Structure formats: structure tokens, C-alpha cells
Give the backbone structure.
Amino acid sequence: MGLVAIYISYRLARRYRFRFLDYYLYNVIFSIVFGFITYIGGLFGELTLAPSLSWHVSFTANIIISALAFPAAIVALYMMICWILEFLWGKVSRWFKLAFWTFQTLFILVNLTAAKIYLDTKELKSVNLIFSIDEKIQLLIIFIALLYLILEGKSLENKAKRKLAINLGLIHLICVTLLTGSFFFIFRYIKSPLVLFSVLAFSHISIEIIPLLYLKWLLGKYHAELGFPSTVHGIEGFFNQFKITGREQSIIRLILKGKTNNEIGDELFISTKTVKNNISNIYQKTKVRNRIQLTNLVMCFEKEKVISI
């Protein structure tokens, strides 16, 4: 499931070339990596270390596993906030980057200090408290970011973009809430380590793949109306992305000039039926329904070229 989630997000990023999808892809990758290290490492500790070694040795191993997984969790959180900001603003501020990594650096130092305290003193109570507070703060950041996406999304003028922002934010929020709330039930009633970590891993990946499937569906239906900046600039980038043939390129350029099917046929010395067939192929490749949507889609690439210059 993790590989499927990564593959779907990769295909979306390559297919539509919207900048926020690159951040979304990295968010999925690092979230899956974090889950893999956490659950495989935790399962290894429960099945291998716990039965044969002391409780303190097992907890030390758990600290090491958490230390390995923690950077992936931070990068996943960073990428999640970046795709939200890119989605809403069209850019990620340098001030945000500086503030985020400064804050997370302090988090890392606090966790390292807590780990050192435990290794030196074997005092568990204060260390557990620090880890618990850190975890809750990171979770709170996720909730705030998703709420921000929903609330700011309501003010977007683009109807399709507004719908995507609100619904995607709500789906993410519901999935994270259900996962967080299910921890109490999972740890309270499931005693088998293998079942426990299997359920945790399945739940973790589900919160990635469910919003991703919705995103895939909506982009397939409305991507021409969203008007996101693209990572490929200009009309040539448009032709390359959608694999437009030479004949189709000529027809698109004439469509942009407002030519009718008959005028396009006369200029290119082809029949009106051939023009219609080529236009139908163009619509299928770009997933648009009419000339207005096609023009808007091309203009997104043209605007991004002007901005980049």
C-alpha cells in the first residue's frame, strides 16, 4: 500500500506538473519512510528484544528507533505544510522555511537532551513527559495546517480550486483524527505485537492513500479549471507535457487565434472532418471539454513562463 501511494503521487506529479504536487509526493514518501522505520522497528523490538532483554534495554532500543524515524517525520511535516502553502499562495515563503527549521532544530535538541537524561539516569517519568509533549505539539501543527487549508480555501475565487482545498483538507483532517483516536483502542485491546503493528501500519498508510485517491479523481476531472502554476513553462512545455503532435500543435495555435474549424482546415489544407478528429484527440489528451478550457490550460503555462522570466 505504501508503494502504491508513492506511485500514485509520483504519477500525478509527472502528469499534471503542478508545483504543489511535487511537495505532495515528497510528503507521501517521507511519511511512508517514517511509518516503515517506526512500525518495523517497533515490531522487531517487541518480538526480538522484549522477551529476552531487560525493559530498560528495550526502551533504549525504542529511543534509537525513534531517533532514526524522527527526521523522516519532520521532513514529511515540512512537505505537507509546503504543499498547502504552494496550493494556497503559489509559493513557499523563505521566512516560513527559516521559522520551521529553527523550531524543529529546537525540537531535536530537546529530544536529544531527553534521551541523554534517560541513558544517564534511567529516569523514565520526565523523559516520557517530554516525548509526549513533543508528539502532541507536532500533531497540533498538523491540525492547524489542515484547518488553515480549509479556512483559506473557502476564500479562493476559483470554484474548482476552492472545492479541492476544502474537501482535501477535510478528508485529511478526518483521517488524522480517526488515526489519532484509534490509538487508544488499538493499544488497549490488541495484545499481539504482530497484529498491533500491522493495524498501526495499515491505519498510517490509509491516511495517506485515501486523500490521494480523492486528489487523483478530482485532478482527472477538473485539472483544466484549477489554474495552478506548472513546473513546465510556456506553450512548448504544454506540448511536451501532453505529447501533442506537430499537426495538433498547429491546430492549437490557430484555436488560440480564434479560428473556426473551417478556417483551420483552409489554412492547413485539410478537411473539416480531419480538424474535428484532431481537436477530439487534443481534448482526450488534455482532459478538457471545450475550447475555452483548452485556452485556459495553455494560458496557465504561458503565464508561468512570463513569471519565471
